Amino acid sequence: MDENRQQRLVDVVVPELGLPGWPVRLVSWLVETGRPVLAGDPVAELLVADALVDVPAPVNGRLAERIAAEGETVAAHAVIGRLEADS
């Protein structure tokens, strides 16, 4: 990966859900790798305490990498993916 592209990568992070100790599962990715997104668009869906929660894109850009897999248990503040931010 070139240095300029690496500098534009922004982490997609599991939000603090206010339920410490509850397991959080990545149910699905809502965006395919390489697809454009706008800041605030949902990119992934989590399940916690029988509720579905969207994970929003932090910036405008493209989904560059999925780090966590669908069905995986993740923690609050975990990096589950990366966006390549628009310049």
The amount of helix comes to under 10%
Q: What is the residue-averaged pLDDT?
A: 91
Side-by-side strand order of the widest sheet: 1-8-6-3
**What is the count of distinct domains?**
1
Q: Would you spell out the secondary-structure blueprint of this structure?
A:
Elements: H1 3-7, E1 9-13, E2 24-29, E3 36-37, E4 42-48, E5 51-56, E6 61-66, E7 73-74, E8 79-85
Antiparallel strand pairs: 1-8, 2-4, 2-7, 3-6, 4-5, 6-8
Describe the structure.
By secondary structure, the protein is mainly β. The chain has one helix spanning 3-7; strands spanning 9-13, 24-29, 36-37, 42-48, 51-56, 61-66, 73-74, 79-85. The strands form 2 sheets. A 4-stranded antiparallel beta sheet has the order 1-8-6-3. Strand 4 and strand 5 form a beta hairpin. The model has no long low-confidence stretch (mean pLDDT 91).
Short recap of the structure:
The chain is mostly beta strands.
Key features of this structure:
single chain; about 90 residues; mainly beta; OB fold (Dihydrolipoamide Acetyltransferase, E2P); 4-stranded antiparallel β-sheet; 8 strands; elongated
